[in-house]
Amino acid sequence: LNAEQMRTVKLDGGLVRRSGEVLIASQNRVMQYKNGKLVPYQPLDSLYGGRAPVFRVYETRSGALWLTGPDSLYRLHDGILTNINAKYHLPAIGATSVTEDSAGAVWFANFGEGLFRFRNDSLVNISPKQGLFDYNAYTFLEDRFGYVWISCNRGVYRVSKQDLDDVADGKKPM
Predict the structure, then answer these.
(1) Which of 99, 101, 100, 104 is nearest to 120 (CA)?
(2) How many CB atoms lie under 10 A from the CB of residue 152?
(3) What distance in Å separates the CA atoms of residue 91 and residue 28, rounded to the nearest whole number?
(4) DSSP notation for 82-110
(5) d(Cα 70, Cα 64) in Å, to the nearest integer?
(6) What distances in angstroms separate CA 105 from CA 55, 142, 161, one per listed residue?
(7) Measured in Å, how far apart are the chain's first and last C-alpha atoms?
(8) pLDDT tens per residue across span 154-164
(9) pTM for this one?
């Protein structure tokens, strides 16, 4: 970026894709760094006329892009853009973080609704109703010992990843 672009870009989130492509979520727009310039990211240019309420961008191992905003969640995979809120009849919610776990499920931490797990085209919510510690989740991190660390207004807590999966699969309460 040149000095002028650096002064005018408000970086909300960014991503260097596995392909080397650089994406920047800036001022409600996803931009691509291409040929020394920031240009609108073409696969998303049709979304809200190119002005999408996107603050974070995450890429899964399969190459799918997950885009989050204050009240929206989108998935771009194989050229198909899906509004997750509309498809799964969710209220206007976004995600504070997006994480792909070791099994390939995508987890969303959310302020006000707890956690969501997306696996096999199914979306499941886990909240204090199912035993989660708090409705507000900011970060979801999986460690190598089978636990998940979740930050919230009340601190940081650790939960068994298997217990979360069992709750999401309807096998047991938390």
Answers:
(1) 104
(2) 19
(3) 20
(4) EEHHHHTT--S---SEEEE-TTS-EEEEE
(5) 20
(6) 21, 11, 11
(7) 48
(8) 899 999 999 99
(9) 0.81
